[in-house]
Amino acid sequence: MKLPTVLRPFAGGVERVEVQPAEDTVGAVFMALEADHPALRRRLTDEQGSLRRHVNVFLVNDNIRDLDGLDTKLSDGDELLILPSVAGG
After folding, report:
1. Which among 28, 45, 80, 84 is positioned nearest to 59, based on CA atoms?
2. What is the layout of strands, in order, in the sheet containing 80-84?
3. In angstroms, rounded to a whole number, what is the distance separating the alpha carbons of residues 82 and 31?
4. Long-range pairs, 37-43, Cβ under 8 A, ≥24
5. What are 2-35's pLDDT values in tens digits?
6. How far apart are alpha carbons 55 and 73 in whole angstroms?
7. Which of 29, 45, 67, 87 has the most crowded CB, counting CB atoms within 10 A?
8. Sign of CA dihedral 26, 20, 8, 61
9. Contact 74/59 with Cβ under 8 angstroms?
């Protein structure tokens, strides 16, 4: 999983995080983050485990919201890119 600069402090400053999910879905990847990077997962999902509104997750060129959300299936070697929305004025 590739992280933008703003999220790296919650993952020990690294650009990429690798996890071994129990299942082959995006949601399982986020669950696996809990063990090593609980602060990062709290910024990605809410208390119910849903993807936060301001977080966009891409699998290749597709936003997972346009696929099956957290139930989006992954293949071995797939990389997720997380892009939080940025607001300003």
Report:
1. 80
2. 62-63, 55-59, 80-84
3. 15
4. 37/10, 37/11, 37/12, 39/10, 40/3, 40/7, 40/10, 40/11, 43/7, 43/10, 43/84
5. 999 999 999 999 999 988 888 999 999 988 888 8
6. 18
7. 29
8. negative
9. yes
Which residues, in sequence order, are CB contacts of 12 under 8 Å at separation 6+? 37
User: How far is it between the farthest Cα atoms of the chain?
Assistant: 41
Tens digits of residue pLDDT in 30-60: 888 888 888 888 888 888 888 999 999 999 8
Q: How many residues does the chain have?
A: 89
Which helix (DSSP H) or strand (DSSP E) does residue 62 occupy? strand 62-63
